[in-house]
Design goal:
heterodimer, A: mainly alpha, MetI-like fold, 13 helices, B: MetI-like fold, 10 helices
């Protein structure tokens, strides 16, 4: 359902723009001094190519059936490059950057948050306030500062890109090492913020759990602290799993910009160029792939949640 | 009200946050009114380092960074404020209505809200911004606000549905109040602090969203905002040329603004939330 709406939005919003993108494309050619009758022919050709000569509902139908065939249309900027190919090239980079960041950030953040809530006092005050400060800095702010501090001012790390100029993506060790070297800064700038955000959420949940009756009761029974903390942690964890799904969506914007700060060859940089060149099919392709990725992540988390929460697991297995 | 304010000022987080925010606000609102410089006018050479004449040097086109920073902070605050108001108004309207009415209306409104929550807002923001030509700062605020309300709606709905079972609401209902009157007079006052905190969050989110969009190149036209300054810095490679004065100040201002708002929010939470309140 959400997917259908997202696809429709993806289709219709850019089409609200007044003006004909093909005309823009043609006028760029015209500056190159192409004959006018030739222009008219090229115009017709392009209109057919992009399917703009058809009524809107047919365009939508084509767009939708194309999606299932993995056809996202043709890029304006890199004509006749296919949008799907451009995205296919960029996607592994983004996945390699984002998935580990979110997962590691989530785990570390949760542990820190729980420790904060449990310890309280000075430790909590210091860590909580710094987490608050860090997590509200957008990713790219930290990215820019890191880029300047550790790549430009003190050239320890490369200033950008996904791999060294001149090397070609393959699976050799030297390339992987090189890619990892370029990976460090974008990864660092995102993970710090991710940890901060998750820690705040976990602290809140754990604080709440600590006031519940079962904790008081276990304490009164004389259970060891460690054991109580384990219960608290497990209970506070459940909402955090839902939080993981949400953070995929929330992180997206910042992560995209972080990529373009480092000119990292992922979806973010692609989107940055696409917007600058007003390449609508490419923008649409990028936003679509982002939506799909986020919805997919949500779906996976939902499934994982079913496995992890004993109540849901029990209900599914039909035991009580 | 006076009591609330004394309570608020007992929270150190709130005091620091409010002080920081007031400084930023003064800088962004008063600054552009007292300066005689134009943020778009060439004031020196390309990437002049900070000097006596211009406190933060010049950017890639020789424009004065300090002046840009004042105007930019103002614009960013304006966008965040508009986004916050729009998102809060829509969110509160939908949330209270759904929570108060219950039944089919509730399910319908919350269904829409939940679907909107799953669609990543940045996607809708990008598509909307691409579709709207000639975006002014206010338009951007509205665009951001329109995509940000579902969270507020959900939270407000939860509050409303627990508040509506109170006796004073029933009393007002048998006295013949209309739904709107009931919501405005009997429910809203009890959620005021809650709504205000939601607004602060949306305000802060609006500022960051503006920066994200602007950095991708979808910022307001003909104006400078903090995000637009960063977009220029990316586009003209001021980071890689080492012109720190062109990008560190907007980064710091973004960070300080959202941090101060967060502190205000956390401080208010301390005061209004009985679970966290220290005796």
């Amino acid at each position: 359902m959400a997917f259908m709406i997202a696809v429709s939005l993806n289709f219709f919003l850019p089409r609200l723009i007044p003006g004909n993108p093909v005309r823009v494309l043609i006028s760029q050619l015209a500056e190159g001094g192409v004959q006018s009758d030739a222009l008219a022919r090229i115009y017709d050709n392009y209109m057919r190519e992009f399917g703009l000569d058809q009524p809107v509902y047919i365009q939508f139908f084509r767009y939708f059936t194309g999606l299932f065939k993995g056809d996202l249309g043709t890029s304006f900027m890199l004509y006749p490059g296919k949008v799907a190919d451009l995205i296919k090239e960029a996607l592994p980079w983004t996945v390699a950057l984002q998935v580990p960041t979110i997962l590691i950030g989530w785990i570390v953040g949760n542990v820190i948050g729980a420790v904060c809530a449990y310890k309280g006092g000075r430790f909590d005050a210091v860590v909580f306030t710094s987490a608050l400060a860090i997590s509200n800095v957008p990713y790219y702010c930290l990215a820019i500062i890191l880029l300047y501090g550790l790549a430009v001012h003190n050239p320890i790390f490369p200033v950008g890109g996904g791999y060294s100029f001149g090397s070609f993506p393959d699976l050799s060790w030297s390339f992987l090492g090189d890619a990892l070297y370029h990976y460090t800064l974008p990864f660092l700038s995102m993970i710090v913020v991710a940890i901060g955000g998750q820690a705040i959420g976990m602290r809140e949940m754990a604080l709440y759990e600590l006031t519940t009756d079962y904790v008081q009761y276990s304490k009164a029974l004389g259970l060891r602290d460690q054991k109580v903390v384990r219960y608290v942690f497990r209970n506070a964890m459940l909402p955090q799993i839902t939080g993981l799904a949400i953070s995929f969506g929330m992180m997206m914007g910042g992560a995209l910009v972080t990529e373009s700060v480092f000119s990292y060859p992922g979806i973010g940089s692609l989107l940055f160029t696409a917007i600058r060149q007003t390449d609508y099919p490419l923008i649409q392709g990028c936003t679509l792939i982002i939506t799909v990725a986020v919805l997919l992540a949500n779906f996976l988390v939902d499934i994982a949640y079913g496995f992890i929460d004993p109540r849901i697991r029990a209900a599914q297995l039909g035991e009580r | 009200m006076g009591e609330v304010i004394t309570l608020l000022f007992r929270s150190r987080r709130f005091i620091i946050g409010a002080a920081l925010f007031t400084l930023v606000l003064a800088f962004g609102v008063i600054g552009p009114r007292v300066t005689s410089k134009d943020p778009f006018l060439m004031a020196g050479g390309l990437f002049d380092p900070p000097s006596e004449g211009s406190m933060l040097g010049t950017d890639n086109l020789g424009r004065d960074v300090f002046t840009q920073l004042m105007y930019g902070t103002g614009t960013s605050l304006l966008i965040g404020f508009v986004a916050g108001i729009v998102a809060t108004v829509i969110g509160v309207a939908i949330g209270t209505l759904a929570g108060f009415k219950g039944g089919v209306i509730d399910e319908l409104l919350m269904g829409v809200t939940n679907i909107l929550i799953t669609i990543p807002s940045i996607v809708v923001l990008i598509l909307l911004s691409v579709a709207v030509k000639g975006r002014s700062a206010t338009t951007m605020g509205v665009i951001i606000g329109v995509t940000a309300w579902p969270w507020t709606a959900r939270a407000v709905r939860a509050q409303t549905s627990s508040l509506k079972t109170r006796e004073h609401v029933d009393l007002a209902r048998i006295s013949g109040y209309s739904t709107v009157e009931l919501i405005v007079k009997e429910i809203m006052p009890y959620m005021f602090s809650y709504i205000f905190m939601a607004f602060i969050l949306q305000f802060s989110g609006g500022i960051t969203n503006e920066a994200t969009l602007s950095m991708l190149g979808l910022g307001p036209y003909q104006t400078v905002s903090l995000g637009v300054m960063l977009h220029w810095a990316l586009l003209w490679e001021s980071v890689r040329t080492g012109a720190w004065w062109a990008f560190i100040p907007p980064v710091l201002f973004l960070a300080v603004t959202s941090f101060s708002l967060m502190l205000i929010n956390a401080g208010m939470d301390e005061v209004f939330n009985p679970r966290l309140r220290k005796s």
